[in-house]
Amino acid sequence: MNMRESINTQRLQALDSAHHLHPFADYRLKDSQISRVIVKGEGAYIWDSEGNRLLDGMAGLWCMNVGYGRKSIADAVHAQMLQLTYYNSFFQTTHVPAVELAAKLVQISPPQFNHVFFVGSGSEGNDTIVRLVRHYWDKQGSPERQVIISRLNSYHGSTMAGASLGGWPSMHKQGGLPIPGIVHIGQPSYLEGGKGKTPEEFGLEAASWLEHKILEVGADKVAAFIGEPVQGAGGVIVPPSTYWPEIQRICNKYGILLVADEVVCGFGRLGHWFGSEYFGISPDLITFAKGVTSGYVPLGGVLVGDRVANALIEKGGEFNHGYTYSGHPIGCVAALENIRILEEEKIVDRVRTDSGPYLQKKFEALASHPLVGSAETIGFLGGLNLVKHKGATVHEHIPFESALSVGMICRAHMFDSGVIMRAIPGDRLLMSPPLTLTHAEIDEMIKLIGLGLDQTLADLKQRGWV
Ligand code: PMP
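A: This is the predicted complex of the input protein with 4'-deoxy-4'-aminopyridoxal-5'-phosphate.
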């Protein structure tokens, strides 16, 4: 297809700028920040309207686990649209895709999960979590257990409860958040807080903040702790190995529900179906979205563990919560086919035993680049920090001034060299590619990232910043 002939890029960009308010964007800049028009995806690659091919190192938005262009998912969706486009699961009705998907999710999830509540997105999933855990404690005769403890710099969505659980002050400022009963502790970022300690010591210290907070709030008022196994949007922050087991111990000690937000980590990203399994923890509830359908159709949900589900079943009383699109049949068939692909192609196992370790070796070698202070991966997630001068340890590197936005400059050079990474404040570049990458595609991605880094270095030298 000659996309340049069929697509008028300038027209689309003008209409986009005139009428389309993008998520997480500064609308004052919308006329000057022209958007790239993406027109096609195949495997790990996307194409823009100018014909540029880009290796999608972010799997869309952490979601295209099986890659773009899977005909079998499109076929399943097409057939279901003709069979039964929509029906709900309110008022004693159900439909085949929701039933089959619920059963499949129970089969692939850790043993404590036998029930699932469907939603349309990760944000809706976390809103459901807030209502569900408070409902649970109410039914347990402890309605005063309302407080949910989360972490600074975590991301849990953009709805009122999702953004409240998240730990971004920039989001809290808009809309009067957090909503009551949500408090935050520090994140387990060794780069941020681990100076002078081993990662293991720091992991225990970061987990101890949970216990301090529980004691400060009063254990009898705390309902749950929520965390992403690995913080994604906050910067691919890999917690030290001691962190999660200690968090689990503290939750058990005080009888507090443990919630894993697996919207990013679920469905193979860490080489297990769920990131909790990587860290050996047993959450009571899991939020999922994104990878459950590999982004082909919006769908999310909450896996409800036996502790909560059995209590609600036993105690009874309506849970007054649900969405028109809870368990949408089209999303459910996309998820079923997506999971079938993950199983048939042994993608989760490959990430754990083969492509993940290969990616780790290649990606971590980028730390030898003069601009890269540290580079680490876990499964198919990665992050690297750009620094002005390297010191003897990660805590002695000298960063660029934040006003220079070196991370964003680098991201633009990555685009020019043909690979997509995400830049976040602190000049950190993130990677979360499709789980299907072959060794050759990993080699290509690392080569393109290296090229982007070289171009950034040359650019910064020209500006006199290094
Ligand atoms: N939780 C996590 C960990 C996420 O990364 C995201 C989205 N990036 C969400 C929740 C929110 O999901 P959604 O955008 O589908 O509402």
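Residues 338 and 344 are 10 Å apart (CA to CA). The first strand starts at residue 38 and ends at 42.
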